[in-house]
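Same chain as my last thread, 156 residues:
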Amino acid sequence: MLKYILVFFISMVPLVELRGAVPYAITNGLPVLPSYIIAIIGNMLPMPFIFFFARKVLEWGKDKPVIGRFFTFCLVKGHKGGEKLKEKAGKGLYWALFLFVGIPIPGTGAWTGTLAASILDMDFKKSVKSVVCGVVLAGLIMGLGTKVVLLIANLF
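reply #2:
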């Protein structure tokens, strides 16, 4: 039970997210499907808060001492990511958001994708669908990747 709780909380951590939770679950011998579902739920739980409040909090804090530099960095990263998506995607913006979240490379998870959607004033429901599908794809990629690495490691 404790390992499932850890999977849930690991998947909520920015930058680590489901991309760390799924490999953790697999390498600790947890059943894949329940772990995967728990990781998706944990990864998606912060999304409404990020979409509706993160931008406001970041804009409020960008001028504050101590936190200002970090908050400005987050705003700039979210804006750059969003503009890059917008520029490349055109009318396929929600597909681009899906791929942005779904391809597991550093800095492209649900947190960043949701922040970019918020900064770009994208539709919430469409953004949720794109991000959820992206998280599912990222989880599949991470799960398969982890299984392959473990199979190769067991050969040696």
